[in-house]
Automatic annotation (TrEMBL):
<feature type="domain" description="UspA">
    <location>
        <begin position="5"/>
        <end position="144"/>
    </location>
</feature>
<dbReference type="InterPro" id="IPR006015">
    <property type="entry name" value="Universal_stress_UspA"/>
</dbReference>
<comment type="similarity">
    <text>Belongs to the universal stress protein A family.</text>
</comment>
<dbReference type="InterPro" id="IPR006016">
    <property type="entry name" value="UspA"/>
</dbReference>
<dbReference type="InterPro" id="IPR014729">
    <property type="entry name" value="Rossmann-like_a/b/a_fold"/>
</dbReference>
<protein>
    <submittedName>
        <fullName>Nucleotide-binding universal stress protein, UspA family</fullName>
    </submittedName>
</protein>
<dbReference type="Pfam" id="PF00582">
    <property type="entry name" value="Usp"/>
</dbReference>
Length: 293
């Protein structure tokens, strides 16, 4: 399951939240050679309503101006003049339009700016971004308003040692190679016992034996609750990006239950890359003699 970028989708509502996320999308597109699509879903009146055509024309005009402004700001950096950028305006429900676009065009990555407030997951990431993360079949990079682009110098890969975490880690390594990033593989075990130690060492040794990427380290913490352990870890090991897999009824649902928890403040400043966890995966790591974990 190799990670490749030919097409990056950047949905925008032309807010400051979205504007701050655009350099993230642009830098990834530049380094990967991907096409960048700026996507806006408008809310023009229904075609049966009075003044529909006038409202529609104004919406198109305003969107075109907003697109030109975004592209103009990007082009101030000469490096970004090399990026292939297209724009798309659609009318209707924003969530449905994005999901329809994903199904039809199958981009390789979605980059979305988010509100970045502390508290409820829908407040932290916004209801549309939350829904996209839950339903998308392609990776989603959620960029909180409070985050600052630093070339993804330090990536934290959160793992629960699920089967497709191996492929997800290989994707993360491929991402890190674009930016020469350091990767910290991070696991929280509920209890300090032999089983937890064996699982951690086994995963570490398997990865180390199958990858040539050198700037990767492994960390094990013991804590009943993942979130305060992760927050404490990030204090000691500042992160530029958190990577996790989306599984049914696992991390992402638990994330939504952290209403007004103080440790959520850390996640309001760090971009989150959500990869798709699947039961059946194409193994990126090669296992000798057909052995799989």
């Amino acid at each position: 399951m190799a990670l490749s970028f030919d097409h990056i989708l950047f949905p925008t509502d032309f807010s400051n939240n979205a504007d701050r996320a655009l350099p993230f999308a642009a830098e990834i597109a530049l380094r990967s050679g991907a096409q960048l699509t700026l996507f806006h879903s408008g809310t023009a009146a229904m075609d049966m309503s009075p003044g529909f055509q006038k409202a529609k024309d104004k919406e198109i005009h305003d969107a075109d101006e907003a697109f030109e402004k975004l592209i103009g700001v990007l082009r101030r950096d000469d490096r970004y003049k090399e990026i292939s950028i297209r724009t798309l305006l659609q009318s209707g429900n924003t969530l449905n339009n994005i999901l329809s676009y994903l199904k039809e065009h199958k981009p390789d990555l979605i980059v979305m700016g988010t509100q970045g407030a502390t508290g409820d997951r829908n407040i932290l990431y916004g209801s549309i971004t939350t829904s996209i993360i839950q339903k998308s079949e392609v990776p989603v990079l959620a960029v909180p308003y409070g985050s600052t682009f630093d070339q993804f110098k330090n990536i934290v890969f959160a793992t629960d040692f699920k089967e497709s975490d191996l492929a997800a880690l290989e994707q993360t390594i491929q991402w890190a190679e674009l930016f020469d990033s350091a990767i910290d593989v991070f696991h929280v075990a509920e209890r300090q016992n032999l089983e937890a130690e064996i699982r951690f060492r086994g995963f570490r040794e398997l990865v180390q034996s199958q990858t040539t990427y050198k700037n990767i380290n492994f960390h094990l913490r013991y804590e009943y609750d993942f979130f305060p352990a992760a927050a404490e870890y990030i204090i000691d090991h500042p992160a530029s990006l958190i990577v996790m897999c989306r599984y049914k009824k696992t991390f992402w649902e638990a994330f939504g239950e952290r209403n007004h928890s103080k440790e959520m403040g850390f996640y309001s400043k760090i971009p989150l890359l959500v990869l798709i966890g699947k039961k059946e995966v194409d193994y990126a790591f090669k296992f000798e003699e057909g052995v799989q974990v």
